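Review form for a predicted model. The reviewer records the input and the model, then writes brief findings.
Reviewer: anonymous (R2)
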Amino acid sequence: MEFGWLKYLSDAGNRGGEMEKPYVGQTVYSLNIGNAARNREQVLTEYRVVGVGRKYFTIQRHDSTGNIGKIQFTINDWRQNTNYCEDHCLYTSRQDYEDEKESNDICRQLGDAFKYSHNNLKIGLDRLRKIAKILKGED
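Model under review:
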């Protein structure tokens, strides 16, 4: 399963490698991040791909006032083409966003359970060994 914007930091995520090339008319979903999310609720918004070039693609939406917002992204990693802080994180479906959100929640729970390298939940050694095997892929 591939997830969105945080995963480009790791080699395992979809942002660590090449993304599929978008096509004109494709529906994508943008999550407001960075300064666009400051003092606002993060909202997943539907956009359409309106242009695809050799290096960049452009998405657009019409809001209720009829204003048109166009935003440009690089094709290879789907990151916003900007000289400043990125304001948008793209997902190919709402389910991709929900999966990433669930994954982040689970990781946060695991982090809290072992914060500061302590076994805060007092998990038994046998269960800790099972967890270690799963993390190593020896499941």
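Findings: Residues 94-113 form the longest helix (20 residues).
Further findings: Helices lie at 94-113, 125-136.
Recommendation: see findings above.
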